[in-house]
Amino acid sequence: MSLSPEIAARLRDAAGFVFDMDGTIALGDAQSGGHKALPHAVALLKALNVRRIPFVVFTNGTAKPPADYAASLRRAGFPVDNRQMLTPSSSAAAWLVRSGIGKVRVLGNAGCAAPLRDAGLDVIGPSEAADGVEAVYTGWFREFDFDALEAGCASLWHGARLVTASHVPFFATATGRAIGSSFAINAMLTAMTGKRARVLGKPSRVALDVALATMGLPRRAAAQIVVVGDDPALEMRMANAAGSLSIGMSTGIMKSDADLAERDRPHALLDSLEPLLAAIG
Ligand SMILES: [Mg+2]
C-alpha cells in the first residue's frame, strides 16, 4: 500500500502523532490480560523517539487509570511513559478544571475517577450523598445500580452538568461486540432529566487539545499533527474536524472506508503501520 506524495510529505513534516491503542498499535491479549503489539508498532514509536517527534497514545477506554494502560504497553515492548498515555478521563479532568468545576460525581470505577482525583477535583462516589455537585461524569461502570441512578439524577436536577467519557453504544472485543457502559448510563440520565451528555473523550476537540498540550504543542498545531486510529467515528472524526491528517488502520474495526461519511473518512486507510515508519524515515 503506497501513500500519495502529499500524504507522505505531511507525515514527514508532522509535528506530532496521536495513536489510538486497541486495533491500531496493539490488540488485547486474552491469555495475559495485557496487550500484544501489532506489526511495526513498537519500531514506529521508537523511530519517533529517535527523531524527537512527540506522540501520545489516547485510548477511549476508562476501565483503568492511564498509568495501568501505559504499563501494559511497556510490557508489550512499547516506549510509552505514563505521561504519554491518555484516556477520556485525562481530557475530562482538564476540561472540568478549566471550566471552574470543583465537585464532580463520577458514575465510573476507580480507574475512571483516578485522573480527576489527580487533577485535584473533589470526586464524589456514584451513590454518595453530597450537596453542591457541579458535574456528573459518566465512564466505564459495570457496577452501575439504582442507587447511582437516583444520586446522579438528583445532582442533575439540582443543576449539575452532564459530561461523559464516551457516547458510543458498542465497542469491539476479541469475543464480539460489547456495550459501552457510559452510553447506556447517559441514555437513562437523559431520559430522566432531559440533559444531554457532553462528550469529553474522543472525538471531541477537548480530547485533541489535551493531546496537543501533552505533546507540548499549541492548539493551532492541530493541522500539523497526525491522528492514527481504527474507529471512523472516534479518531477519524476528531482528526478531520480539526484539520489533522487522519490515518485509518484496517487492523481493528474499520475494514473499508467505502461507505463512510466525509467527516469520518480517513485521508488514507492502511493495513499496516509500515508505510508510516517508511515515511518518517
Ligand atoms: Mg481502537
Characterization of the model:
The protein has 281 residues and is of the alpha/beta class. The protein folds into two domains: 5-88 and 202-280, 3-Layer(aba) Sandwich (Rossmann fold); 99-199, HAD superfamily/HAD-like (Rossmann fold). 36% of the residues lie in helices and 20% in strands. It contains ten helices and 15 strands. The strands form four sheets. A six-stranded parallel sheet has the order 5-4-1-13-14-15, with helices on both faces. A five-stranded parallel sheet has the order 7-6-8-9-12, with helices on both faces. Helix 4 packs parallel to helix 5 (110-118), helix 4 crosses helix 8 (205-214) and helix 6 crosses helix 7. The protein is globular and about 55 Å long. The structure holds magnesium ion (MG). Magnesium ion (MG) binds at residues 20, 22-24, 229-231, 252.
Order of helices and strands: HEEEHEHEHEHEEHEEEHEHEHEEH
Bound small-molecule species: magnesium ion
**How is the main sheet built?**
6 strands, parallel
Strand line-up across the major sheet: 5-4-1-13-14-15
In terms of DSSP E residues, the strand content is 15-25%
Number of strands: 15
Distance between the termini: 17 Å
CATH superfamily of the largest domain: HAD superfamily/HAD-like
* CATH architect. name of the largest domain: 3-Layer(aba) Sandwich
Radius of gyration: 19 Å
CATH topology grouping of the largest domain = Rossmann fold
Structural class: alpha/beta
**CATH class of the largest domain, anyone?**
Alpha Beta
What characteristic shape results from the CA principal axes?
Answer: globular
